[in-house]
Amino acid sequence: MSNNMTITTGDVFIPEIWSKETIEEVRSKLVLANLVWRFDKECKMGDTIHVPSITNLIANDKLKNLPVQFQSPTETNLDITINKHKESSFQIEDMLATQAARDLRAPYTDAAGYAIGKAIDTDIATLGAALAQTKGTYNTAITTDVILDSIELLDLGDVPEEDRHFAFRPDVKRDLLDLSNYVSADYVDGRPVTTGKVGALYGVATHMTTNLIKAAGTNTNNILFHKQAFAAAVQKNMRVQSEYSVKDLANLVVADCIYGVKTTRPAFGVLIKT
């Protein structure tokens, strides 16, 4: 029959339901900024932090009847420039705020904070992709030799074993799990095949993040680094400010941060290409 009332003819009576939940855009895990050398407490003012070097002294033979040999090395400074001011802002007009079924300020403020944090993390990842010491080959699965050669580079440079970190993109995790040494309890803490977690590889803390630089779609830049390979100095922690604009009839929210990053000890880091 053709005269039945259907969901088409009665559409005006069918309500649409708006969930209180929202679908947020996926976010990278941000790890680098918390692993590097931090100078936040030393940059309350000014635009440059001077970090003086200390040269090692040598041991001289003490010769009879002769004075000791005084050493006076000429030292230099490593400069960290505070030159980045990032902001993320949005404005919610009154009509939208009044008619919306939820508070929009909170989730977008959170998104603005993430944007600032990602900018700092990305700047450090960019420094890692520019390291002169490299191991591995682009668009090639990582091997045990590449991992061990990278560790050896730091060992030969007398880089302290404490505060070393691997940072890999997650697509490298698939290749790591194919390495027999990696899944053996003799080489890695936690046995990822059993636990699903990424632990310490050959005693080096291992982190996964999509926020490492991947160029040309296939050239993946992973990093092995000691804490002092890179420095970050946050002069003004991320702040969130808001005001009401009578002109725009809207609430304006601005998140911002002032900071600088620097490769401080290049020999303390290795770019691992995959």
How many individual β-strands? Answer: 13
Largest sheet: 7 strands, mixed
Classification by helices and strands: alpha+beta
Mean pLDDT: 87
* Total of DSSP H or I helical runs spanning 4+ residues: 5
End-to-end distance: 65 Å
How much helicity do the residues have? 10-25%
Shape: flat
Helix-strand pattern: EEEEHHEHEHHEEEEEEE
* Low-pLDDT ranges: 192-197
CA radius of gyration is 27 Å
Task: Kindly estimate the percentage of residues that lie in beta strands according to DSSP.
Answer: 25-35%
Task: Report on the architecture of this protein.
It contains 5 helices and 13 strands. By secondary structure, the protein is of the alpha+beta class. It has a domain at 32-84 and 133-234 and 261-273. The strands form 3 sheets. Strands 5, 6, 7, 8, 9, 10 and 13 form a 7-stranded mixed beta sheet that branches. A 4-stranded mixed beta sheet has the order 1-11-12-4. Strands 2-3 form a two-stranded antiparallel sheet. A hairpin with a 3-residue loop joins strand 9 (214-215) and strand 10. The protein is flat and about 115 Å long. The model is unreliable at 192-197 (pLDDT under 50).
Task: Please describe the structure with a list of short key phrases separated by commas or semicolons.
single chain; 274 residues; alpha+beta; 7-stranded mixed sheet; 4-stranded mixed sheet; 5 helices; 20% helix
